[in-house]
UniProtKB/TrEMBL annotation:
Keywords: Metal-binding, Nucleus, Zinc, Zinc-finger. SMART domains: ZnF_PMZ (SM00575). Putative transcription activator involved in regulating light control of development. This is Protein FAR1-RELATED SEQUENCE. Residues 259-306 form the SWIM-type domain. GO terms for molecular function: zinc ion binding. GO terms for biological process: regulation of DNA-templated transcription. Residues 428-439 have a biased composition (Basic residues). It comes from Urochloa decumbens. InterPro entries: FHY3/FAR1, MULE_transposase_dom, Znf_PMZ, Znf_SWIM. One of its GO terms (cellular component) is nucleus. The keyword ATP-binding does not apply. Belongs to the FHY3/FAR1 family. It comes from the Eukaryota.
Length: 500
C-alpha cells in the first residue's frame, strides 16, 4: 500500500539468454535512494561497472548513474519512449495521422546525424510541435536513443528494458500489500533458481549440438569453434548477406584503403576502411562496435583483402563458449565455499566439446568409426572401475587414484559388447543416483510454473523499475560484463502512463 519501488537488474550471458544480476526493494525514488541502489549493485559486481545501462526516462536515475558509474553509457528504453509518445500525442493519433510512424522512424531508421535532424525538424513543423515541452526534452536527450549516437555504444542489440518485464511477470502476483515480506523473498529465490536452472539447461543442450552450417567456409568453421550457438547463427546470417555484397567504389591509394559497399536490393551504402598489412577493418554501420561481431560489409572487405580467417581482435571473448570461465585472480582476497558440483561442471565443459569433435571426425570414414567404437568399450570399463572406488557423492571433488589412462583397441569387440557396456554404465549411474537421494530438478520447476499460471494476474498501480546494462567484452577471469545485457532495474514510467 506504500507503493515501494521494485528494481531488477538483468543482462545477457554469452548464450544470449537472460541473466538475473540483482533485485531490490527501495524505500522511495529520490536521487539518494538511486545512488544507494547503484552503489550496492556495483559492490555486488566486484566494482565492475557495465559498459551500457538501459533505463526509463527519469532525471533522478540519470543523475545517480552519472555519479556512481561515470564511465557507463546511458541509454533510454526506446519502447518506453514510444509508449509515452502515444500518451502525450494521443490527440494527433486520434486524427489518423502518421505521427507515430514518423516518430518511430526517427528512433529506428536514421543512421546519420543530418538525416535525423532533417526528419525531426520536418515532423515538428508538420504537426506544429515547436512548443511541446515533452518533445523538446526527448530531443535534448537524443544521444541516449538516436542511432547516430547509439551506434558508438556497445549494446549487444538491446534497445529497451523488455527483459525485465519477463522477470516481473514471474513475481507480479507477490507484489501486493497483503503478501508477507518473508514469503515474497522466498518466492523471489524460487524465481531466480528457476532462471538459473534454465541457463544450465541451455548451456547443456548447446554442447550436445553440432553447428548447422549453411556454407562450409573457413571463416565459418573458425567461428563455430569460438562462438556460442546463438552468436554463430547471427554471424552466419551476416556471412550469407556478404555473398550479395558488392563494392561500389574504392580508393587503394593509401595504406588504409577506403571502400563503398552495398548489398543487392538494398539502397543504403556503407563506407568501410581496410588495412591489409594490419588486418583491420572498420564499417560505418559499426555493427562490431555495438553488437560484438563483424557485419556483412566488413566481411566483404576482409575477403577482398584475401583474409580468410577472422583476426583475433574481432572475436570478443564475451560471445565465446568459454566466456564465463574464471581464473585465480577473480577470487583473490575472497572466502570461497567449495562446491563439488562446480568441479564436475568444469570437467564436463572441457570433455564435452573434445569428444563431440572426436566423434564428428571419426564418423567421416568406416575405419576411424570402427576404431573409436572399439575403443569406447575399454574406456567404459576403465571409467566404471574408477567410479566403483568412490565411496561418497563428495568424492567427485577429490583427485581419483588414476594415473595415465591408456585404452587399447580390441579387435574382437562387437556391437553387442559395446551396447552392453553402455547400458551397464547408464544403469549403474541410475542406481547410484537413487541410492544417494538425488531428486529430479525438473519436477519442482514444472510445479512452480503450473502454480504461477493458475494465479490471477494483478495489475500494479506502480510499475517496476528496469535497468538494462551491457559490457562489450569479458576477459577470462573477470566478472560477467555486458550481458548485452540490459540490466533492467525496474521500469520507470511517466506517472500518467500505464505499462503495456
Amino acid at each position: 500500500m506504500d507503493l515501494r519501488p521494485f528494481a531488477s537488474f538483468v543482462g545477457f550471458d554469452n548464450y544470449g539468454e537472460t541473466v538475473v544480476l540483482g533485485m531490490a526493494l527501495m524505500y522511495d525514488r529520490t536521487v539518494e535512494s538511486f545512488q544507494w541502489l547503484f552503489d550496492t549493485f556495483l559492490n555486488a559486481m566486484s566494482g565492475r561497472a557495465p559498459s551500457t545501462i538501459f533505463y526509463r526516462q527519469d532525471a533522478y536515475q540519470g543523475m545517480a548513474i552519472s555519479t556512481v558509474m561515470p564511465d557507463t553509457s546511458h541509454a533510454l528504453c526506446t519502447r518506453h519512449l514510444k509508449q509515452t509518445a502515444k500518451g502525450n500525442m494521443n490527440y494527433l493519433i486520434q486524427r489518423g495521422c502518421d505521427f507515430m510512424k514518423e516518430f518511430k522512424a526517427c528512433i529506428n531508421d536514421h543512421e546519420e546525424e543530418m538525416e535525423l535532424f532533417t526528419s525531426w525538424e520536418g515532423m515538428i513543423s508538420k504537426y506544429s510541435l515547436h512548443g511541446n515541452v515533452w518533445m523538446q526534452k526527448v530531443f535534448e536527450e537524443k544521444e541516449k536513443w538516436a542511432r547516430p549516437y547509439m551506434k558508438w555504444t556497445f549494446s549487444a542489440g538491446m534497445k529497451d528494458t523488455q527483459l525485465n518485464e519477463r522477470l516481473h511477470s514471474d513475481v507480479r502476483d507477490y507484489l501486493t500489500p497483503d503478501v508477507d515480506i518473508t514469503l515474497f523473498m522466498k518466492h523471489l529465490q524460487k524465481v531466480v533458481d528457476d532462471r538459473r536452472y534454465i541457463e544450465l539447461e541451455i548451456e547443456f543442450s548447446s554442447r550436445l549440438k553440432l553447428p548447422d552450417f549453411k556454407i562450409r567456409a573457413p571463416i565459418l568453421l573458425q567461428a563455430s569453434e569460438a562462438y556460442t550457438d546463438m552468436i554463430f547463427q547471427l554471424f552466419q546470417e551476416e556471412y550469407e548477406e556478404f555473398q550479395s555484397a558488392y563494392i561500389v567504389s574504392r580508393d587503394d591509394s593509401g595504406p588504409c584503403r577506403e571502400y563503398i559497399v552495398a548489398i543487392l536490393d538494398k539502397e543504403r551504402k556503407h563506407k568501410v576502411y581496410g588495412n591489409p598489412s594490419e588486418q583491420t577493418v572498420s564499417c560505418s554501420c559499426r555493427k562490431f562496435e555495438t553488437l560484438g561481431f563483424l557485419c556483412s560489409h566488413a566481411l566483404k572487405i576482409l575477403d577482398t583483402m584475401d583474409i580468410k580467417y577472422l583476426p583475433n581482435r574481432y572475436i570478443l571473448n564475451r560471445w565465446t563458449k568459454y566466456a564465463r570461465c574464471l581464473t585465480g585472480p577473480q577470487i583473490d582476497g575472497r572466502k570461497v565455499q567449495e562446491d563439488t558440483t562446480f568441479e564436475f561442471s568444469n570437467r564436463y565443459q572441457y570433455l564435452c566439446p573434445v569428444f563431440v569433435r572426436l566423434v564428428a571426425k571419426a564418423s567421416e570414414c568406416e575405419e576411424s568409426y570402427r576404431a573409436l567404437e572399439q575403443c569406447s568399450i575399454e574406456m567404459c570399463k576403465k571409467v566404471e572401475g574408477i567410479l566403483r572406488k568412490q565411496t561418497s557423492i563428495d568424492a567427485s571433488a577429490s583427485q581419483p587414484d588414476v594415473e595415465d589412462i591408456q585404452v587399447s583397441l580390441s579387435a574382437s569387440a562387437t556391437d553387442n559388447e559395446l551396447e552392453h557396456a553402455m547400458n551397464y554404465s547408464s544403469n549403474k549411474r541410475a542406481k547410484k543416483t537413487k541410492k544417494k537421494g538425488h531428486k529430479d530438478k525438473s519436477q519442482p520447476r514444472s510445479c512452480i510454473k503450473e502454480w504461477l499460471q493458475n494465479k490471477q494476474t494483478l495489475q500494479l498501480e506502480q510499475p517496476a523499475m528496469q535497468f538494462s546494462m551491457l559490457d562489450n567484452h569479458i576477459q577470462p577471469g573477470t566478472d560477467l560484463e555486458g550481458l548485452s545485457s540490459p540490466f533492467p532495474m525496474g521500469q520507470l514510467h511517466n506517472e500518467k502512463m500505464q505499462p503495456s
